[in-house]
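testing teh design pipeline on a random one, pls ignore if ur not involved
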């Protein structure tokens, strides 16, 4: 079959990305979009039917009833492949959390150059959750105890990881009954690897039971720790004006793109870029200053706290280099394409790796150490500035959108009631009355095999029309940002009437940007607070809410899906299913697929499904929300009941003669 080469428009809906893909073609360069067209994925591996766990394989099971050399069946092989991916995702998020906890320890002990505790209130709130004394103690003393407690969660061998105590009481009880509360973060990941070694756990349901515990070690373990410590050290996000897309790069400045995930280095690069000595150094090199921009979740971290612009999401990493205007791309961990180095060789861009865990052949390695963070950040910026003179031909797409990110659960609580009445009551009331039909969390990656940003933004826009409040994180949030959905009133005319009233009354965009992917824990916290506020059931699985990752690609996304399901959420993934099995057959190759939907739903009230068609994703989301509304005995969703208040209505009334206006408003 001849391979299908997509046009730039078929590869992405983003005009900035299209412009760069055309430039790549003109220059004879390739990107992930090109490589995705160049080879077809292995259909056996893609369906989870390939086992390469020992030296007798790889065993590729292409027919029903086949087994591997050791006798492993299709369902066992699929379950093993899936849990290994979940374990890798859980490990990645959690190791990020561990590094954050070690940084907190160093800061508490005055050993971390340049860092301070920015959010003492959050430090005290979090510490108090765990019974750490806070009265009359200095922030550093509290932080030291919290850091020790958090560091212990990773290597703990027995008991329960402490962040699970922040889940609804009923959920904790359910987890305890099912035996899935993580004992220690590392222990669950190690056990997932042990169980899937040749000749160990051969019962797919038993394997997937442990997948739940491995996912929970991420969501209610490592990721939650990462979010807490990031907020304590760098500030809990609140709305701030930002920009997104490649047009944030500047022609007359030294452009430094920070890409990856951990905020420790990027926050310090932000601080260093404002240092007068560094600015003077940049000016001496002929630039007007330093322009920082982020990619992937690093972008989200510094965007929501510092307002530093986002150059784009996952598939923008190569495209930013194609502008020719990036002096340095500074990377730490996760979602960093190896192809960056080869591509950068066609320009002057320096790829600088910084993590002791991540090196790429051909990149410059400038290792980060939190004890000397500010000095290292300045060294990195000097290297970028020195490279400014080597810049050649540049082309920066004139495309950027404004956005307002920073909707932490703390801020949502505050915005709904102010300082003295901070509460989730108005949100619960809006859902209970039907003004808001339900909530959708639309998160996750870009995938080079699907049209960049299309599924994200299509699903988002369609759900908004149906009065579904949308919260977003990760690369999905950046997709919406690029389309202008994260800005105040933008797009409110395309939002359902009830949701529009709420957005206008509270003064929020219809899509709330809640942060990076580790910050999906903020969504767990919001759901917990909604439950605790009352009126929407007594556990997360009763809330009319759905999680979606329409363009997922990473193992981290699978881990997120698993802990969301374990927390009671219905999760829909777009694109390919890693456990799809034999095409069109209901047989043993469907056991895993059925278990992670019906099986998990029976046990945890949440389920995971892979759905390719975006309209079906929307339909299933709405059906689920309506089903949950009915179970709570809430009024049936009826958009005709709303839209008679709010700014739009007032503007309409203003056009009427006085008497008619009074009649409409007061009935006389
Ligand atoms: Ni999430 Fe963030 Fe993006 Fe996907 Fe990668 S950056 S941690 S994995 S690609 S959303």
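output:
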């Amino acid at each position: 079959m001849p391979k299908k080469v997509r046009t730039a428009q078929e590869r992405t809906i983003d005009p900035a990305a299209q412009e760069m893909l055309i430039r790549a073609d003109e220059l004879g360069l390739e990107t992930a979009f090109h490589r995705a067209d160049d080879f077809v994925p292995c259909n056996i591996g893609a369906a989870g039917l390939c086992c390469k766990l020992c030296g007798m394989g790889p065993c590729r099971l292409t027919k029903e009833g086949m087994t591997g050399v050791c006798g492993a069946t299709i369902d066992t092989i699929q379950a093993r492949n899936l849990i290994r991916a979940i374990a890798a995702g859980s490990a990645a998020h959690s190791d990020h959390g561990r590094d954050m906890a070690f940084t907190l320890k160093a800061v508490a002990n005055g050993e971390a150059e340049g860092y301070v505790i920015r959010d003492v209130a959050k430090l005290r709130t979090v510490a108090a959750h765990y019974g750490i004394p806070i009265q009359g103690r200095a922030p550093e003393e509290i932080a030291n105890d919290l850091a020790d407690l958090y560091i212990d969660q990773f290597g703990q061998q027995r008991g329960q990881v402490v962040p699970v105590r922040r889940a609804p009481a009923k959920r904790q009880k359910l987890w305890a009954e099912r035996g899935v509360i993580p004992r220690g973060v590392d222990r669950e990941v190690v056990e997932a690897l042990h169980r899937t070694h040749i000749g160990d756990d051969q019962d797919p349901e038993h394997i997937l039971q442990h997948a739940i515990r491995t996912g929970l070690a991420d969501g209610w373990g490592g990721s939650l720790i990462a979010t807490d410590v990031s907020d304590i050290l760098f500030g809990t996000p609140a709305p701030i004006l930002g920009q997104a897309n490649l047009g944030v790069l500047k022609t007359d400045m030294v452009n430094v793109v920070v890409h990856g995930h951990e905020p420790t280095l990027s926050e310090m690069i932000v601080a260093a870029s404002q240092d007068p000595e560094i600015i003077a150094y940049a000016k001496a090199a002929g630039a007007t200053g330093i322009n920082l921009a982020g990619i992937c979740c690093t972008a989200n971290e510094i965007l929501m706290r510092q307002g530093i612009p986002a150059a784009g999401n996952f598939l923008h990493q190569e495209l930013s280099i194609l502008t020719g205007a990036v002096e340095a791309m500074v990377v730490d961990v996760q979602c960093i394409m190896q192809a960056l180095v080869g591509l950068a060789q066609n320009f002057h861009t320096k790829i600088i790796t910084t993590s002791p865990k991540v090196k790429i052949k051909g990149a410059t390695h400038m290792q980060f150490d939190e004890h000397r963070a500010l000095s290292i950040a300045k060294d990195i910026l000097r290297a970028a500035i020195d490279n400014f003179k080597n810049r050649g031909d540049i082309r920066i797409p004139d495309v950027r959108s404004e956005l307002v990110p920073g909707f932490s659960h703390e801020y949502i609580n505050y915005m709904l009631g102010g300082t003295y009445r901070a509460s989730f009551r108005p949100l619960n009331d809006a859902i209970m009355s039907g003004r808001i039909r339900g909530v959708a969390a639309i998160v996750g990656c870009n995938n080079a095999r699907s049209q960049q940003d299309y599924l994200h933004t299509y699903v988002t826009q369609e759900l908004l029309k149906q009065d579904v409040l949308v919260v977003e994180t990760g690369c999905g949030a950046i997709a919406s940002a690029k389309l202008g959905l994260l800005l105040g009133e933008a797009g409110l005319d395309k939002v359902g009437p009830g949701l529009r009233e709420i957005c206008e009354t509270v003064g929020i965009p219809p899509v709330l940007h809640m942060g990076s992917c580790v910050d999906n824990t903020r969504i767990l916290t919001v759901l917990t607070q909604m439950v605790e506020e009352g009126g929407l059931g007594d556990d997360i699985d009763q809330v009319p809410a759905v999680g979606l990752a329409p363009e997922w690609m990473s193992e981290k996304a699978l881990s997120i899906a698993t802990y969301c399901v374990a927390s009671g959420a219905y999760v829909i993934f777009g694109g390919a299913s890693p456990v799809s099995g034999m095409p069109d057959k209901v047989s043993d190759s469907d056991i895993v697929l059925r278990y992670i939907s019906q099986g998990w739903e029976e046990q945890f009230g949440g389920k995971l499904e892979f759905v390719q068609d975006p309209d079906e994703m929307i339909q299933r989301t709405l059906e689920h929300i309506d089903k949950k509304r009915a179970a709570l005995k809430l009024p049936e969703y009826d958009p005709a009941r709303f839209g008679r208040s709010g700014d739009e209505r007032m503007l309409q009334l203003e056009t009427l003669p006085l008497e008619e206006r009074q009649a409409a408003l007061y009935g006389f």
